[in-house]
Specification:
The chain has 388 residues and is of the alpha+beta class. 27% of the residues lie in helices and 33% in strands. The protein has helices at 46-59, 148-151, 158-168, 197-207, 209-222, 263-273, 302-315, 328-333, 354-357, 365-370, 372-381, and strands at residues 8-19, 22-31, 35-39, 76-85, 93-103, 106-115, 118-122, 127-130, 135-136, 170-173, 226-236, 240-249, 252-257, 279-281, 284-286, 290-293, 320-324, 339-345, 348-352. Strands 9-8-7-6-5-4-1-2-19-18-3-17-16-10 form a 14-stranded mixed sheet, sandwiched between helices. Strands 11-12-13 form a three-stranded antiparallel sheet. The protein has a two-stranded antiparallel ribbon with strand order 14-15. Helix 4 (197-207) packs across helix 5 and helix 5 (209-222) packs antiparallel against helix 6.
Length: 388
Amino acid sequence: NGVIFMRMKLKSFEWTESRDKKIETKLRNLCIDDFNLLIGDNAQGKTRLFRTLNFLSNTFKDKPLTTPGDAIILTDFSACFNFESMNAKDADNVRYEIDIIPGNGKNSYFEKVTRNNRILFSTKEKILFNEFTQSEVENYFIPKNLPALSSINEPDFITINILRGFFQRVVLVSSEKNRRVDVSPAAIIPDATGANISSVLSNWQKLYPGVFNEVMNEFKQCFPLVKKIFFTQQDIQGVMKADLLTFEEENIYKPVLQTQWSDGMYRILFLLVTPKIPFHFGNEVLPPSLILIDEIENGLDFKRLKYIIDYLKDYSEESQVLIASHSPLVCDFVHPGNWKVAKRKGPEVEFLSPKNQEEELDSQLDLFKHKHWEFYSKHISNSEKYEI
């Protein structure tokens, strides 16, 4: 009855990286919910998880990466992602498998897309199924050094388009505290550090004034001291003019330019922007599919941290959220049922959930959320419940 853009929710995924037939990293089956808090020791694989998902997102982008080398990996990479449809009468299960093999400065891609156990595309089995005509395509050609998810753009291949849309709408907020200014005249999507946030919001003010005003109002709620926020045109490095965010504070009449903001103000603004990022697919404007935030607590005080976590929870039905943290305070703000505890043993990484490991989760909330050291030392570090 026509092509409908159906939202897919990621249910679980796993991958293996290997070199010379030796496993370097193996992420076991990670089940995710709408809102997820990743906790655990350093060097357990949380940041690597984010970087890998961001790498795949960049791989399927319509526009080439700025640095071509970013598209080449140095290890054999094999991954499997399981999705579920969000707005079908009967839930559809979609499985996406990908193998990436580097060599001679290029990657070779081998993919398989399955929907309700029907193969829609397979590189190795040479199958391409047209869902609109309900027939197999004959005599097609896709170069192995290009992924099918970025090569097949015709609307008849509904599921492949949906999968590409999901990966292209993955958003990463890095742990870096950054006030560098990157001038990006056409940008409507912030980069992972938020360095181009002034250009993004300047464009939103023209293209999406309603969304822009929502962000500004949220920012003022976070910082009641802000009386007015606006743009000031400034020379950047003496060669380029840019609109920089500026605010005026109550009872202080000297405007505060973006480059003089505190780290926390800059990061809060970036986090407020993130779930509102618009992604264009045909006539549709869609929100992020998956939001990844590394070390969310960086630069944030107690009140703003609670505010931004509640804010992201409100958007988690539209965009799945994964936040990583080393802060006990963040654990106070998130129910343990949404925790994923990162554990690594050699090259193997697993994320274990208290809702699966603990027999009496709700009755032990005081232990989990307020006696952090007792929980961490007894349950995570020295308990068989959280061993791989």
